[in-house]
Design a protein that fits this description.
The chain is mainly beta and about 200 residues long. The chain has a single domain, classed as Protocatechuate 3,4-Dioxygenase, subunit A, CATH 2.60.130. The protein contains one helix and 14 strands, in the order H-E-E-E-E-E-E-E-E-E-E-E-E-E-E. The strands form four sheets. Strands 3, 6, 12, 13 and 14 form a five-stranded mixed β-sheet that branches. The longest helix has 11 residues. The chain starts with a helix and ends with a strand. About 10% of the residues have low confidence.
Length: about 200
């Protein structure tokens, strides 16, 4: 099955979760809300057993370096989750995935700390054609935590002109996963913040 066929098939199987963002205090002064992170397609190039590492940067790597940071919460919108397995993968700046090498380039796994925090150092991915259209730059996420539903999702980047025509990035449920790339220091360091909210089983 080629990439286009897989993506079309996957889109039919994808299911919609609630859009996150509504949080309020109830009369007992407890947070309630619908802050669940929405899902996206797995894509055809997932490889299991990605290395446990935070840096995906290597000598000779092309691309703009970014740091992806965030925290993982339960669906009460405030409980931080420890030991959550956060896995990412993406293509290189030429739009190619490493599907065969033992280095498993542009692929990594990490666990959240006691504060629910995770981070990865990588690059802003390139783009590739899906039929006649380019998919916007994106990074895949697979997030697993005991007692919670597994999340398979993607993040996109604000200002990307290919978002509006993409079948998945343009969906209403993806709007909170279109993220700003922010300059965070005097040396031009770039950061993307992505907090993740998981639904309990």
């Amino acid at each position: 099955m080629d990439r286009k066929q897989f993506i079309i098939t996957s889109s039919l199987a994808a299911f919609s979760l609630s859009a996150f963002g509504r949080v309020s205090l109830d009369e007992d002064n407890k947070f309630t809300g619908d802050c669940e992170t929405t899902n996206d397609i797995l894509g055809p190039f997932y490889r299991p057993k990605a290395p446990l590492r935070q840096s995906l940067v290597y000598k000779g790597l092309k691309g703009n370096i970014i740091n992806i940071v965030g925290q993982v919460y339960s669906d009460d919108c405030k409980t931080k989750l420890e030991d959550v397995l956060v896995e990412i993968w993406h293509c290189n700046t030429d739009g190619e995935y490493d599907n065969e090498s033992s280095e498993m380039l542009h692929r990594a796994t990490w666990k959240t700390n006691k504060k629910g925090e995770y981070s990865f150092k990588t690059i802003l991915p390139g783009k590739y054609l899906n039929g006649k259209l380019y998919r916007p730059s994106h990074i895949h996420f697979r997030v697993s935590c005991k007692g919670h539903q597994e999340l398979i999702s993607q993040i996109y980047f604000a200002g990307d002109p290919h978002i509006t025509e993409d079948p998945w990035a343009s969906q209403k449920k993806a709007e909170h996963r279109i993220l700003a790339v922010q300059p965070v220091d005097i040396s031009g360091g770039l950061q993307v913040s992505f907090d993740i909210f998981l639904k309990k089983k």
